[in-house]
Design brief:
By secondary structure, this protein is mainly beta. It has a single domain (17-132), classed as Deoxyuridine triphosphatase (dUTPase) (Deoxyuridine 5'-Triphosphate Nucleotidohydrolase, Chain A, Distorted Sandwich), CATH 2.70.40.10. The chain is built from one helix and ten strands. A four-stranded antiparallel beta sheet has the order 1-4-8-6. Strands 2-10-5-7 form a four-stranded antiparallel beta sheet, with no helix packed on it. It starts with 16 loop residues before the first strand and ends in a 27-residue tail after the last strand.
Length: 159
């Protein structure tokens, strides 16, 4: 029987090698929660609880390092439930894990809420989405093709 990682959304699965790091012992391997999940949950690989005060940021280890195939990246994203209920977010979201990075995945959590927030070992703290990367070839030109929008930005479309 196939796991949720082997079925589900998008293109056929790719193989991502994963190495457990110190502190990651006993934590489950990242798995999508449902067949339709775009990402996997990252968990807190901490020995003692962390208390994140309002306005504070902490770096939380996941307990895993990964080896992404060339041409892919990992996108570390906030968990919507933590953001809505507690104001817990990731200030550099999405954080990027490049295919040549081999260190432990760590997540910067920020408390934008009004109450302290406790993180315990094994808590789901973020999502990791593996996505293809399209390399751009940059070509300098004297001008760009004009559009109806032109250079209007930041709310220019009225939406």
């Amino acid at each position: 029987m196939k796991s949720a990682s082997e079925e589900g959304v998008g293109s056929p699965p790719i193989c991502v090698r994963l190495a457990r790091q110190p502190g990651g012992g006993g934590l489950p391997l990242p798995e999508p929660a449902t067949l339709g999940s775009a990402g996997v949950d990252l968990r807190a690989a901490i020995e003692e609880d962390l208390l994140i005060e309002p306005g504070a940021r902490v770096l939380v280890p996941s307990g895993f390092a990964i080896e992404l195939p060339e041409g892919f990246e990992g996108q570390v994203r906030p968990r919507s439930g933590l953001a809505l209920r507690h104001g817990i977010s990731i200030p550099n979201a999405p954080g990027t894990i490049d295919s040549d990075y081999r260190g432990e995945i760590k997540v910067i959590l920020m408390n934008a809420g009004s109450e302290p927030f406790r993180v315990s070992r094994g808590d789901r703290i973020a999502q990791l989405v593996v996505a293809p990367v399209q390399r751009a070839i940059w070509r300098e030109v004297d001008g760009l093709v004009d559009t109806g929008r032109g250079d209007g930005g930041f709310g220019h479309t009225g939406r």
